[in-house]
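Please check this:
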Amino acid sequence: MTAQSTTVQDALFGEPALVETDDHGPPATQDPREVARIVATAQEPGLLLIERTGLVLRADPARPGCADAVPRHDGDTVVQLLDTGHLKLGGTHHIHHNGSEGPARSILVPKATRDMIARWQHLRPIPQRPATAPNTPKQTRQRSTGVIGVDVVQPGKALVTLGATGAGGTVIRDGGRYRVENDHGALVGHASSYRAAARLLARYHGYTPGPVEIEHEHRTYGR
């Protein structure tokens, strides 16, 4: 059993919320201070996304064309903001990272997001990081999917299986993003990557997302 805890976070809109975390599923942040920090980093020095792996990089201003991986929590927050439309994917750049090189998409900050952060700063100071609250009772914790399998069956299409839960869905490339459907073909939402889509399906079915494993039946494309 993985360790879980609950933290209190100031909500983006409304009252503070209790947000459950675990060792595998990336928690969705509602902390305005964290969102403001990520947005500021996306503006300067800049963030990038390696679409094939879902890895988020921070541009190195001292080494043009080079970037370093951000901490996992920051990467999860970037994916969350991409999924909600508060950040957007831009053009493709050739980036050197950790001894290798390849394509990565720039991450852009829409004007609406910049205006939102400005409103927060004018209305009240961005709140400090909240303290950790005691663990919630076991019966209130959400079930975990276990390992989520993503099987890329053809270019731009993948089947998702949520561990041993029996639930899943389909992910289909839709322009620059991915359309996420449940087992019956009904729209669940859109995501920025196969990994983000798998986590979205897990939450849709009422589970805490576990680690995501992606298998490509065709190795010449995609992420």
About this structure: The CA atoms of residues 47 and 58 lie 5 Å apart. Residues 32-46 form the longest helix (15 residues). The helical segments are 32-46, 72-83, 111-123, 194-204.
